């Protein structure tokens, strides 16, 4: 113990004191959680790499909204890697970690999830600005997009480092939480409230977009027989429902557990559901590419070309394909991607 702090204590000291006892032997539930977690991590990593490659190689995706989608994929990719690291440092392996290694494990997760949520919020704001100004593409310059993306990662990194920088319980054992034995209870409450606030902001933004587009569609339908506006409203409603629904399903259980733990609820049995909520929260990084990318027909076509290219390379090593080739002139003549009309 250094002064009034317990910096030199082992991980077991904090876990035993908080009541989060970890078995020295691998149990069935440990194998189930780790196996499920590893499977989700691998799928998340591959899916988001595919999204990033598609956006990078197809010129039709070189617009602010797709740059943000690419950054979202990067954040979710980082989340997959962070959880992969966690899966190899959890269960009985946890007790072998040093205090610094434990904070690193948690900081990676906090950083990746903050970046993912911040990207979702940035995309919502970008769509709000674009639709209310009746534009197909945002007028943001590349410089502003880079600054926005940099700001997202700076915020995410800072939030990930906050506990290690001092918002922990190493110097006040009475404030230690149960789910994260070296995190302060007040930090868990702050983390849960911050994410819930972000969720409500997103809900408000997309609800306002939906009401505006529906009103605009009704006014235009009085002067034209075209049905594209109505189809846009339907697509928008589906997209908004998917975004909010998946966000609630993936995040609410874990946020509620964090809130209950931070408030010191002794009868809530937070440890019983912790690992499953953790895997469920990670699934949000898998759902994001599906919602924001797989609904785009052009993106799907790009995915198929990339995968077909990889298959051809695997079947014929003598093929001299240098990468994915796109008939960009032909694609430009087809007009803008339909995805932008559905979100």
TrEMBL record:
**InterPro entries in alphabetical order:** GPCR_Rhodpsn, GPCR_Rhodpsn_7TM, LPA_rcpt, LPA_rcpt_EDG2
Which taxonomic lineage does the organism of this UniProt entry have? Eukaryota, Metazoa, Chordata, Craniata, Vertebrata
Which coarse location class describes where this protein primarily resides? Answer: membrane
Gene Ontology molecular functions: lysophosphatidic acid receptor activity
Task: Give TM regions.
Answer: 31-56, 68-88, 108-125, 145-168, 188-213, 233-260
Which of UniProt's keywords are assigned here?
A: Cell membrane, Disulfide bond, Endosome, G-protein coupled receptor, Glycoprotein, Membrane, Receptor, Transducer, Transmembrane, Transmembrane helix
Matching SMART domains: 7TM_GPCR_Srsx
One family name in Pfam for this protein = 7tm_1
Protein's name according to its UniProt entry? G-protein coupled receptors family 1 profile domain-containing protein
Ranges of residues in domain G-protein coupled receptors family 1 profile: 47-292
Its annotated compartments are: Cell membrane; Cell surface; Endosome
What is the gene called?
LPAR2
Gene Ontology CC: cell surface; endosome; plasma membrane
Membrane-topology annotation of the record: Multi-pass membrane protein
- Stated family: Belongs to the G-protein coupled receptor 1 family.
């Amino acid at each position: 113990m250094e002064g009034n702090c317990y910096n030199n204590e082992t991980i077991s000291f904090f876990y035993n004191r908080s009541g989060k006892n970890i078995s020295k032997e691998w149990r069935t539930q440990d194998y189930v959680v780790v196996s499920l977690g590893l499977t989700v991590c691998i799928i998340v990593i591959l899916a988001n790499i595919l999204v990033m490659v598609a956006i990078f190689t197809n010129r039709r995706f070189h617009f602010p909204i797709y740059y943000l989608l690419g950054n979202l994929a990067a954040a979710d990719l980082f989340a997959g890697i962070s959880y992969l690291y966690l899966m190899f440092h959890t269960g009985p392996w946890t007790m072998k970690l040093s205090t610094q290694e434990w904070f690193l494990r948690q900081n990676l997760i906090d950083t990746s999830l903050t970046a993912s949520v911040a990207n979702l919020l940035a995309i919502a704001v970008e769509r709000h600005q674009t639709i209310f100004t009746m534009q197909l593409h945002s007028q943001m310059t590349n410089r502003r997009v880079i600054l926005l993306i940099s700001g997202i990662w700076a915020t995410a990194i800072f939030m990930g480092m906050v506990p290690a920088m001092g918002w922990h319980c190493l110097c006040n054992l009475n404030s230690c939480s149960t789910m994260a034995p070296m995190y302060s209870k007040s930090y868990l409450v702050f983390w849960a409230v911050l994410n819930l606030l972000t969720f409500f902001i997103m809900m408000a933004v997309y609800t306002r977009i939906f009401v505006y587009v529906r009103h605009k569609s009704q006014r235009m339908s009085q002067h034209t027989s075209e049905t594209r506006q109505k189809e846009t409203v339907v697509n928008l409603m589906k997209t908004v429902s998917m975004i909010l629904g998946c966000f609630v399903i993936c995040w609410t259980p874990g946020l509620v557990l964090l809130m209950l733990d931070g408030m010191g609820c002794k009868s809530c049995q937070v440890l019983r559901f912790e690992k499953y909520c953790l895997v469920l929260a990670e699934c949000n990084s898998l759902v994001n590419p599906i919602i924001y990318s797989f609904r785009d027909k052009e993106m799907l076509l790009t995915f198929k070309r990339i995968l077909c290219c990889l298959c051809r390379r695997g079947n014929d090593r003598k093929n001299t394909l240098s990468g994915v080739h796109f008939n960009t002139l032909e694609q430009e003549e087809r007009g803008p991607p339909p995805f932008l009309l559905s979100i």
